[in-house]
Input
Amino acid sequence: MTGDPIHFKTVLETALLTATEPLSVGQLKKLFAEEVAATEINDALEDIQRDWLGRGVELVRLSSGWRFRARTELTPYLSRLSPEKPPRYARAVMETLAIIAYKQPVTRGDIESIRGVSVSTGVMQTLLERAWIEVIGHKEVPGRPGLYATTRKFLDDLGLLSLRDLPPLAELGALVVPDSVPADEPDDSPLDD
Amino acid sequence: MSGVGEDGFVLEAPALPDGVPVAHVFGEPVLTLPQDLFIPPDALKVILESFEGPLDLLLYLIRKQNLNVLDIPMAPITAQYMAYIDAMQQERLELAAEYLLMAALLIEIKSRLLLPRPPREDESDAEDPRAELARRLLEYEQMKLAGLALDRLPQAERDFAWLAVLIEQTAEARLPEVLPADLRAAWLAILSRAARNRHHQVTTDELSVREQMSWILRQVDGRDYVAFEALFDIDRGVSYLVVNFIAILELVKEGLLRVSQEAAYMPIYVRGAETAQESWR
Output
């Protein structure tokens, strides 16, 4: 046992509050001089989660660890403090990201053949700079094109625990029937960033 | 056919089954579209620019007219596609080569459908020339919808902020502990080097630990970090080294000296404890 359980929780809570990145259970173990079981830490984390229910911030479990973040309901208020709200990504970026996320690992050529247009370096640059995608290897064909995959940060930033938690793809069979397709004609959103 | 008028673009109305209202104007269903649909030039440019590529445009045409993607009517679709390409070129929009490639593909598929198919005994079904296009359209649409779904997920910095409470970092650098084994290893290294330098002095040197302690303190006084090895004069013999080492240990014990090492097997450094305290202010 690690002595006073309240103190144990406080230590974990403080570390998570002051961290600038998600902390994994392995990292949280290092807070203590003595050996701590993962189950003890997980129980305490769930406890802390419950303690913070009803507050403006929540403790969430991400792909790369645990982190405190502001509840999404409060974003409208917070955004008034920072007028520089980041815009939505253009459709080209999101489509490219979707292809990489669902079909990884893929080459630029694979992305091009699915989208029907050549991949713009700007799009790839945006995703690479955000650290949402990375090159994880090369395809052993002439030219040795890089293979792209999504990163842990991609999962963290979208609040996903793993790739399994991605929104399910529309069934190809369901797409054949026009009625099941939502209306997303170009004139609905003509202005992309 | 359709083309670009002086002031804008005239789009040919798509054919719809009878009885299906095309639109509702002031609540009343409209069964047939007027033959000339006029789109102002600025709106046209915006619409044309918003297509992500030829597949996107084709998908738009197919979905807008509620066509069956597995049974694309090639003649009207090709005609409509070409009309849009025409309009884009008229608007002097940067037309990606892929659009023209797709135009060629559509024409090729259309002509293949028109030609009589040669009898094939080895295949039970001749492959529909539209099959590959249909597959590509569906796959693209799947990814397009997936992109929209991903965009709807709450996104860091756009929809929510991470929390990081300010923590006052102290100026104290946490120096790693020096284990006795590290000191011993350094000491033995010095000894082994000294063993090679032996000189036989007949005069007895009165060495006192306290004297060495003062000497060491004078060495580290005012200086930032002194290498452990620098405090040992190998030429002065083993007994001197022993006393020096004991002096260092005594100084550490009395809190007048600090010994630190960055990591195992890294060089060991020594600094006066008062110097260390001064830098914290």
Q: What stands out?
A: The longest strand of chain A covers residues 57-62. The domain at 5-75 of chain A is CATH 1.10.10.10 (Arc Repressor Mutant, subunit A). Chain A touches chain B through 56 residues (CB under 8 Å). Residues 180-193 of chain A have pLDDT under 50 and may be disordered.
